[in-house]
Amino acid sequence: AQSVAQPEDQVNVAEGNPLTVKCTYSVSGNPYLFWYVQYPNRGLQFLLKYITGDNLVKGSYGFEAEFNKSQTSFHLKKPSALVSDSALYFCAVRSGSNYKLTFGKGTLLTVNP
Amino acid sequence: DVKVTQSSRYLVKRTGEKVFLECVQDMDHENMFWYRQDPGLGLRLIYFSYDVKMKEKGDIPEGYSVSREKKERFSLILESASTNQTSMYLCASRKDRAVSTDTQYFGPGTRLTVL
Fold it and tell me: Least CB-CB distance to B99: which of A9, A36, A96?
């Protein structure tokens, strides 16, 4: 079985401050990890993914995520938050043999001006 | 860019009605998905199709069926709608099962209300 935990339902940060959205996972075998974002009244969009290689993955809109195997985590980060980053963020995991993605429950990020 | 479209943005149906939700993708993708999104529960997979006429149950298939007669189109069917099926339904597609190409493209969603 595979699972994802996003321990924070909501994260609030001030514009210009760094942001972190947390994600931990559980999977058999090598993990393949993803972040998706849902802006208000819009569909989900792919942000970034970790397949193999460098533990720091860079994605769209200045976001990055760090894969930490020992802590089974894949936290999403951005050095300087924008108000337009306010959205619902989903972490997801799959293994190589499991073609299905398992999503977390989502974290609502609010960036205050 | 991949485009995934869903037949309706909003739908209101009555308990017991048969409901069809349709999804079309324009990038010749092999795999298509139906999810439902509920507050506090995230996205849950209802059904998955890995090719034409091929389907597999997801995590919450009860009360739903699917049809994929053409590669570009994936339909979700609620045989007899119930109030606990009130939800946001999201369709997605991706090229194939390979991890290296695993990027899912989502439609805008259909918000279904069952009265």
Answer: A96
